[in-house]
Design brief:
By secondary structure, the protein is mainly alpha-helical. It has one domain: Up-down Bundle (AhpD-like), CATH 1.20.1290. The chain has 8 helices and no strands. Helix 5 crosses helix 6 and helix 6 packs antiparallel against helix 7. The longest helix is centred in the C-terminal third of the chain and has 29 residues. The radius of gyration is 16 Å and the shape is globular. InterPro entries: AhpD (IPR004674), AhpD-like (IPR029032), AhpD_core (IPR004675), CMD-like (IPR003779). This is Alkyl hydroperoxide reductase AhpD. Keywords: Antioxidant, Disulfide bond, Oxidoreductase, Peroxidase, Redox-active center.
């Protein structure tokens, strides 16, 4: 199972996705840990068993055990935070913003890897989950840490391609069994 297998699973009508998948992973300027942590966190967040099964072994191979765990932690905590903060933001009553969240998210303060890497993974998952409040928060932390816009964009580009690939391969799998 591999990136090549995932690309070959994409139908002809999704040729752009096949090319983009190869590009965002194979031609990325991100350091290996940032790249594969982003890939793993997004593969988890995209909720596609097929995509996760294909990308996880390469992510595990390219990440230290600490980074592998931290990327999974980013996907887990952002699954919660993205729903909570997106909902708080979408509600028309601003008083919800004054209430204590009361949710544990200690991993954000001590992720076990460089804070910038964890923030990048959290931003990518937030892009995939569509939480503007979390996107703004993580982007601001990254920019204050002197991460350039190209790096930030690379993370959400990976998220967008993994989401599109997940949607496509899952749809094809469902149609094949229909």
């Amino acid at each position: 199972m591999s990136l090549a297998d995932l690309k070959s699973a994409l139908p002809d009508y999704a040729k752009d996705l096949k090319l983009n998948l190869g590009s965002v992973i194979g031609n990325s300027d991100l350091p290996q840990q940032q790249l594969w942590g982003t890939v793993l966190a997004c593969a988890i967040a995209a909720r596609s068993p097929i995509v996760l099964r294909e990308l996880e072994p390469e992510a595990r191979e390219n990440l230290s055990p600490e980074a592998y765990t931290a990327a999974k932690s980013a996907a887990a905590v952002m699954a919660m935070n993205n729903v909570f903060y997106r909902t708080r933001h979408l509600l028309s009553d601003p008083e919800y913003g004054t209430l204590r969240a009361g949710l544990r998210m200690n991993v954000i303060g001590n992720p076990g890897v460089e804070k910038v890497d964890f923030e990048l993974w959290s931003l990518a998952v937030s892009a995939l989950n569509g939480c503007g409040m979390c996107l703004d928060s993580h982007e601001q932390v990254l920019r204050k840490a002197d991460v350039d816009r190209e790096t930030v964009q690379e993370a959400f580009k990976i998220a967008s391609v993994i989401q599109a690939v997940s949607t496509t391969v899952d749809a094809e799998a469902a149609l094949a069994t229909a």
